[in-house]
Amino acid sequence: MIRAVILLGGPSRKASYGTYEQASPLFPVSGVEIIGHLLNAIQKLPNLKDFVLMGYYDKKCFQYFQEKYQKLYGKNIRYIQEESEMGTAGGVAQNLEELFEEVEDLLVVHSDICCDLQAQKFYEYHKNKSGVCSIMTVRVSKDESTRYGCLIKDSKTDQLIHHAEKPEQYISNLVNCGVYIFNQTFKTTILNVKAKKEANLSEELQHQPYVKYIKRSTDLDKLYLSLENDVLKQAERDKVYVYEHQGFWQSIKSTSDLLNANRLLLQYYGQNPFIFQSPDFEIKSDGVLIHKSAKIHPSAKLGSNVVIGAGCEIGEGVRIKNSILLDGVEVKNFSFISNSIICYNSILGYWCRIEGDVQFLGPWVIVDNELYLRNVVCLQNCRVSKSQDGGCLM
């Protein structure tokens, strides 16, 4: 049996996408919550026992999500709330016995990714290698690689040779996807790493007490552990294997990443409509997803890569491309929207033009008639009464 653990992190302005009332992993992309896409892929594992959500959000944030997906998949979904920010391995280390109870392996997945996760193939690979840990990786461009954890593997055995988290210089275009499988032996590995960190920290503070003034708070927290920076660096290399994913993958750290993830998912579901698990939406041609309750004027032109949420109203002559409109958005006649995320219940007036690299309008934003917004971030509950080129509106 295997248990799936989704690492959620916690509240952060950087990753809130402008909607502070909503946990970032619940932000809808292609009509489904970010982590909903992951659960949909993972639940296909035939020997999956249950799901565990782990993070330092308040547990109430995920109560509706848990109930919804428990009914949908018939699998128990628990939430383990961390006391504080504990890193990508801290919460796992603190709850090892509970996580490994009645299962042989853990599938650990970061919540801020989008991919066509082939969970069964990855699991079979892990079992064939018989290693302590298997890491899912993907090839990216040379320029992009330094944004992620870079890995070098033995081309014959797939064993991990070297790992560098966000290196300053190019090392490899094979990057960590944030998806792992650990077996029971991993408990010993992570406990050894935890004990070593605690011992080193105690000794360092004893002989160099001034370090607490120059180090980050997370470096001084005995409960804080990073899978990437702490555990992988000290794990025995001959027991860690690297699985190369052949599908698409996108890390989600910003609003532009959200739009890229939306594009990739719409293409994927367009080619595989039987995989899409939201019956309230209808997949159209050219990567367009429309909620069945939305009202679209026949003269409006949508696409490519457009999602229209529940209760949206799109007026006459409107043009929308490469954008996400969440529930309740109203777009008046003859407006143009490109490369934008428009959040809940916002209203765009007549003859507006919203374009640029990436635009983000938070919930309950009103844009007056005949305005031009380019490369603008507009926070929630804001009225826009004049045109703007760049900047943040509050």
Explain this structure:
The longest helix is centred in the middle third of the chain and has 22 residues, at 186-207. Helices cover 23% and strands 32% of the residues. Strand 14 and strand 15 (288-291) form a beta hairpin. The protein contains 8 helices and 31 strands. The protein has helices spanning 34-42, 63-73, 87-94, 96-99, 119-129, 186-207, 227-234, 255-271; strands at 2-9, 28-29, 32-33, 48-55, 77-81, 105-110, 113-115, 133-139, 149-153, 160-165, 174-183, 240-244, 249-251, 281-284, 288-291, 295-296, 301-302, 306-308, 313-314, 319-321, 323-325, 330-331, 336-338, 340-342, 347-348, 353-355, 359-361, 366-367, 372-378, 383-384, 388-393. The chain folds into 2 domains: 2-194 and 225-255, Alpha-Beta Complex (Spore Coat Polysaccharide Biosynthesis Protein SpsA, Chain A); 281-393, UDP N-Acetylglucosamine Acyltransferase, domain 1. The mean pLDDT is 89. It is α/β, with parallel strands linked by helices. It is elongated. The strands form 6 sheets. Strands 14, 15, 17, 18, 20, 21, 23, 24, 26, 27, 29 and 31 form a 12-stranded mixed sheet that branches. Strands 5-4-1-6-11-8-12 form a 7-stranded mixed sheet, sandwiched between helices.
Explain briefly what this protein structure is.
Pfam families: GMPPB_C (PF25087), NTP_transferase (PF00483). The protein has 394 residues and is α/β, with parallel strands linked by helices.
Estimate nothing, just give the exact number of structural domains: 2
- State the shape: elongated
What integer value in Å does the Rg equal?
23 Å
First-last Cα distance: 50 Å
Which stretches are poorly predicted, pLDDT < 50 over at least 5 residues?
A: none
Under CATH at level 1, the class of the largest domain stands as Alpha Beta
The CATH topology label of the largest domain is: Spore Coat Polysaccharide Biosynthesis Protein SpsA, Chain A
Estimate what percentage of residues fall within beta strands: 25-35%
Quaternary structure of the protein: single chain
> Can you summarize the main beta sheet?
12 strands, mixed
